Amino acid sequence: MNINEIRDLVSGNIVIDNGAASVNAAYASDLLSDVMGHCGDESVLVTIQNHLNTIAVCTLVGVEVIVICHNRPVPDDMAEAAKREGVGIVVTPLSQYAASTALSTLKPSVK
Question: Structural domain boundaries of the chain?
């Protein structure tokens, strides 16, 4: 699944485009240590975490797209890091539950 398909499924907006993204799994968590321990690569992360550390963790585990819920804004430093690291960002008005169910055609992400 690419970032445009993710955007459409969660009724969101692409803030940082990662046209090369090829996502085949999804993971939902707001605890970044949980993401580090359990999220596999080629995944989309569904979260409310909108800060620089989120990009660092996603780069570490191989997350290609982040879906930020509740229309939380993307700070400039996070956007710059996402561009630099090739992590796409989609912002959605949906809750984490609603965004996760919208992406339910993806398999669960596991390490």
Answer: 3-108
* Mutual angle of helices 52-61 and 76-85, in 10-degree steps: 20
Superfamily of domain 3-108: HprK N-terminal domain-like (3.40.1390.20)
Q: Is the dihedral of CA 87, 90, 95, 100 positive or negative?
A: negative
Q: Once rounded to an integer, what is the mean pLDDT over residues 75-83?
A: 98
Chain-centre distance for alpha carbon 66: 1
Find, among 105, 111, 109, 84, the residue nearest to 6 by Cα: 105
Single-letter amino acid code for the residue at 10: V
The pTM of the full predicted model, rounded to 2 decimals, is: 0.97
